[in-house]
Amino acid sequence: MDSQPKRKPNAREIAARIRSEIAAGTFGPGDRLPGARTYAKKLGVALMTVQNAYTQLQEEGLVEGIAGSGTYVRDPAPGEQGPREAAQRLTELQAEVARVSTELAGLVERVKQLEAVVGPTEGESGA
Description:
Shape: elongated
CATH architecture: Orthogonal Bundle
Strand order of the largest sheet: 1-2
Protein name: Winged helix-turn-helix domain-containing protein
CATH topology: Arc Repressor Mutant, subunit A
Coiled coil: 90-117
Number of strands: 2
Pfam families: GntR
InterPro entries: Bact_HTH_transcr_reg, Tscrpt_reg_HTH_GntR, WH-like_DNA-bd_sf, WH_DNA-bd_sf
Mean pLDDT: 87
Keywords: Coiled coil, DNA-binding, Transcription, Transcription regulation
């Protein structure tokens, strides 16, 4: 039996999960997302957390909220990129940003190591 309680997902993680489901075709154009209250209860998070996730997806252009009805995957206009393709591209972009961030952190560490060996460059103070 696990003594550690499971960590509850934050809004960003919930949005990523739904974005992945849109990208995979689990939710298609015109499909209604789970009701925010029901989904919050299922995940064990505050209603506001799910609402924030849905807002993030709305700002990305993947879903639209219809007052009194729910949140739906957008049905693209003719010639417009569909939500599935947009979600796939966003997911790929996030992976690329994570990869670049990791590489950048490694480069920063290497520069610090080089500076420690070389010492301050001309014009820099030892402060």
